[in-house]
Fold these 2 entries.
Entry 1:
Amino acid sequence: MNPANDRYQKKQATSGTARNGDVLGVARLAGIMGAKKTSDLIPLCHPLPLTAVSVDFTLLPEECAVKAAATAKITGRTGVEMEALTAVSTALLTIYDMCKALDKSMEITDIHLEEKSGGKSGHYKRT
């Protein structure tokens, strides 16, 4: 494989000009859709009327990586961490699907909850 061409293709994937289209834009939309379908995917997870879902990406070029973060909100008294975790997972799986022609050895790692408030367990912040 030509390293210069490989770098060019990876740049296209993060700049919205990849052969498959706007990779991060499609992944953001997929993450939001995934959050809304969480109760269809996770057994015993109740459907919730989400008031907001956002998915943001941080490019880590030195690691040739993308970091995804999701925020989910609801007006009710329950936590929405499963929706946020599903959003991140779906977004990252979408990036993998759209970029697998560039590198099939991509890894999805370290998906975890950073912070949550509400619900029976109250406030949680990862240390």
Note: The helical segments are 3-15, 23-36, 38-41, 81-99.
Entry 2:
Amino acid sequence: MRTERIAAVLLAAGSSTRFGDDDKLMADLRGKPLAAHVLETVASMAFAELVAVVRPIGQAPVIHRKLDRRGYSIIVNDRPEEGISGSIVRAVEHVMPNMKIRGILICLADMPDVPQTHYNRICLAAEDIRSVVASTDGFSSSPPAFIGRKHFPELLALKGDQGARALLSHGLQIETSGNVLHDIDTPEDLPGWRPVTPQ
């Protein structure tokens, strides 16, 4: 499916409890905030709409500014404790009225190393509104993933932090290396991370 018929949905509202007190999405990675890598890669593609689900602006002002500059529709999830499902529900409610959108591409803001080519492979593998296309490292299904419009009602019923995992596990799997699908959950996951040694 052509990207012009797909809404890209960037999920960036998690509370990152495993990362400690710092804002994970603002952690420096190769000279810019972690989240900037994904939002810029996705924004460089020709999607029908760019949608980002984020925390309130008071908690994430820099991310809001970067998303706004790149042309994202910003949706605030003020209840990140509901888990990833709450963010997916808000995004689907936003894109559903636009009948030109045939499905969504779910992207995670803490997966900085997914190249444009992989996002394209997912979209091209989607045939129609019934399609579900997930990424896999050969072991488990994960985003980035395409979910066709036919499954929107199912997405609206999601609860908790498993997100659309069950749906993705039954979809077409596009394999890539674990390095591409690596997500940042703790400071130790950042390349080149070193513990701060007390003076």
Note: Residues 194-199 have pLDDT under 50 and may be disordered.
